[in-house]
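User: Predict the complex.
Assistant: Input components as received:
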Amino acid sequence: MKLTLKVWRQKNNKAAGQFETYNVEANEHMSFLEMMDVLNEQLIEEKKEPVSFEHDCREGICGTCNMVINGQAHGPQKGTTTCQLHMRHFKEGDTITVEPWRATAFPVIKDLVVDRSSFDRIIQAGGFISVNTGQAVDGNAIPIEKDIALKAFDAATCIGCGACVSACPNGSAMLFTSAKVSHLGLLPQGEVEHSRRVLNMVAQMDKEGFGMCSNVGACSAECPKEISLENIARMNREYFKAVLTSDLK
Amino acid sequence: MKLESKIPKGALDTKWNDYKSNVALVAPNNKRKIDVIIVGTGLAGAAAAATLGELGYNVKAFTFHDSPRRAHSIAAQGGINAAKNYQNDGDSIHRLFYDTIKGGDYRSREANVHRLAEVSTQIIDQCVAQGVPFAREYGGLLENRSFGGVQVSRTFYARGQTGQQLLIGAYQALSRQISLGTVTMYNRHEMVDLVVVDGKARGIIARNLLTGKLERFSAHCVVLGTGGYGNVFYLSTNAMSCNVSAAWRSVKKGALMANPCFTQIHPTCIPQSGEYQSKLTLMSESLRNDGRVWVPKSQEDAQAIQKGKKTALDIPDSERDYFLERRYPAFGNLVPRDVASRAAKVECDKGLGVSPTGLAVFLDFSSAIERYGKSEAHSKGMNATKEQIIAMGTKIVEAKYGNLFEMYEKISGENPYVYPMKIYPAVHYTMGGLWVDYNLETNISGLFAMGEANFSDHGANRLGASALMQGLADGYFVLPYTIGSFLSKEISTPTISTNLPEFEQAEKACQERIECLINVKGNQSVESFHRRLGKIMWDYCGMSRTAEGLKKGRQMIRELRAEFYKDVYVPGQSNDYNPELEKAYRVADFLEMGELMMLDALERNESCGGHFREEYQTPEGEAMRDDENYCFVSAWEWDDQNPILHKEDLIFENVELKTRSYK
C-alpha cells in the first residue's frame, strides 16, 4: 500500500518544528512502527536524518512508544498502543499525520520524542507502599477479596505512556495519577499511607504543570489500557477526604 | 586462571543460612560513605538499587530508557515460581531446586540453585507487601498455575502481565528511595565502558543519550543487571534496545563470558510474517496449561492449510497429531521449552507446518473451551446446548488469558477463540552470561552481575516463570548480602576520583570508538548489518547446530564484522541525541559476541538443554549429554583471534545425573 506521511520534525526543544511530507510503501501486516522503520531505512539510504521516535518492547506493555496518529493518541484502534497498531487499519492512498504528545509537562526533545520524567516525579512523590525489603509478612496472611484485587489490578495495568495527557484538552495527568492512587489505595497494604499518598501525588502533579480535569473523558477513551474514569472519581473523593480529615499538610 | 566458585562448605540446605550468619557486614555509619553503581533497572537492578538504598548505601542507578519503569522485565507474561506449597500438591524448596537443576539439564551450580529456591518464598511475600496485585481465589488467598517441566502448581501470576506488575513494584520501591535521596537516578544514560583501577571495578563511562556527552561516574563497586543477549539473533522476543554492550564492555576489560551458547528458544511465539519484521512476540507458556499443540497427520492437509484452501477447523480430530502428548505422555503439552521447540521444528521439517511459510504449528484451545463450558453448565445445573457450552467456556478462557488472545488477534488479524493460534519457536532468553561466583561477583574484583546478565542458575535451559524469580532473588535477597563480602574490605577506601588516569583513558577510548563508527561513512545501514548477523546466528547457531555449520557461521561473522567497519553508515553526530549511533555501537558488540557463541557451541560436543548438536542425539531424536567430558561451565576470555576457554567443573553432590526424561 502506498501512503503519504506528514511527520512532525523538530530539531530540539528550542527550535520551531514543522511537518515534513514523505511517501512510503507499506504492507498491511506491518505494525505502525515497522512502517516507520521502512521510512527511516529510506531516509538513511538517501543520507538524510531519520525520524527520531521512541519505542522498545513493541508488545504494548513498556509504554515507551508515543505517537499522535491522525489526531489521536496511539491512532485509531481502541485500546491499542502505537506499536500494536497494524497497517491493516489503513488503506491504500491514505495520508497519515504523525505528531508527538503535545503537553506543557512533556517538552519535545526531538521530532516525536518527548520528556515524560514528570510522571516519574509524581510516583516519587508517593506512588508506593513504604515497605523495606525483608519486612513483609507471609503473602497469604493478607487475604484480599477477589473483586477488590481485580479492581486494583485494572488500575495497575497503566503503562505510563502519557496518552491520557496528550488526549486531554487541558493536558491533565488525572487519569495517570488516579490509577496509581486507586491501585495502591484499594489494597489493604496501601491503606495505611493513603491520605499522605493522595495529597503528595496531587501536589506534585500540579507542580509539574499538568492541567486540571474538566471531565472530558478523552483520557480514558484514548488510553491503550482502557483505564476507567472511575479512578478519577475515586481520587477526587479520597483527596477531599484527606484534605478535610487528615492532619497532614 | 583458576575459577573459584566460592561455594560455602556445609550441607546444601544450610549453606545459605550459614553464609548469611557469617558474611562480613558493613556498619550503618560506613554504608553512608560507600558508593555503589547499579547499571540497569529491570527486576534485578531496580530491586537491588531499592534494597541497597534502604540499607543506607549511596546508590547511583543507570538506565538507557527514559524511565526505570520501561525495562524489558516488564514484558514477562506468565508468572513467577515460588516453593510456597500453598496448593498442598507436594511442592517444597527441594522440589523447586530439583526441577530447576533437571530442567537446566544438569549444567547449573547446585548451591546457587538451592539458594534461589530458598529465597523464592520471600519474594512473593515482599511483592504482596508492595501491592503487587497477584491473582486470587474467592477466599482472598493467592492463586497458582502450572508451567512447563514441573508437576506442581507453584506459579504466581497477575493475568498475563506478571512481569509488568513485579517491575512496577520494584520501580515504586526504587522511586521511594529516589525521593529519600539514597538513590540518584540517571535516566537516558548508557554504560559504554567499565573503569578498572588496580584490578577493581571502580566506575563506568556513561553516554548521556540526550546530549551525546560521555560522563564519568565512580563508585566502590559496580553491579550489572543489564539483561541478556538474545538480540544477537536480530529477531527475538526481546525489546528493541536490549543489548549485550554493558556485559561485553566488561568482557573487554577482562571479565569472563560463561556458557554463551546456552540460548533459549521459546516454543510459543507468533510466527514471522515478512522480511520487514522487527521483532517477534511471545505467547505465554501459561497457554500450554490449556492449549493443545498439533499439526495435521498428513502432508496433503498441511499443504492445503499452507495454501489457504483448508483451515484447522476442516481437520477432524482423528487426522490431527498432538505430537507433544504423543511423544511425552507424562508431561504432555507442558514439557520444557527446549523440548517443545525442537519437537515443533521436527514436525515442520517433515512438511507438516501450518502457515504459508510452513513454519508454524497449531496451539488449540477448543478442548479447554468445551471442558470449561461443560463444568460451568454443570455448576449452574443447566442442560446446555453446544453453542451455550462454547459461549460459557470462551468466557472462562477469556478471563484467564484475555490479554494474550487480544494481543494475538491484533498482530495476526485472526480470532484465536475460533481458529487455533499459529505458533513457532523464537529466541527468548539467554542462560549464558557473565561468569560469577557464589557472591555474584565476576572474576573482576568489585564487578557483580545479576539476573539474566549472569549465567549461574538456569544451566542449559531455563524453566518457565523462573526468570522473574531469579531477577528478584538476586536483587532483593542475594546481592544485598553477598556484596558485603567485597564492601566490608572497602570501608577505608575514600571516594574514588573520576580524575584518575584510568577514567581518562577509558573515556578517550570510548570517544575514539564512537568517532570511528561515525567516520566510516559507508553505504549500508546499521539495521541491515544486524539483520544479516541475526540470519547467520539463526541458521548456524539456532535450534540445532552442527560442527560444520558452526565453523562456517563463525567465518561468516568475522567477514561481516570486517565489512561493518568498512561500509556501515551512521547518520548524525556523536555529540547529539542519535539513536542510530546507539544501535551502531550495540551491533558492533553483538558482532563479537555472536562469534563467541559459535565458538562455544562448537567446543561443546554434546547436546544439552537449549544447545542441540545434531551429531549428539539418540535414535529417537532426544538430546545426548556427555557428563564425562562436558560437565563444566565454559568461561571465555575474549581475544580477537583466539578466545581462551577456562573451565569450572560442576560438582553434583546432592543430585544424581540422569538422562532428562519427560516421557
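Residues 315 and 591 of chain B are 45 Å apart (CA to CA).
Let me know if you want any component modeled separately.
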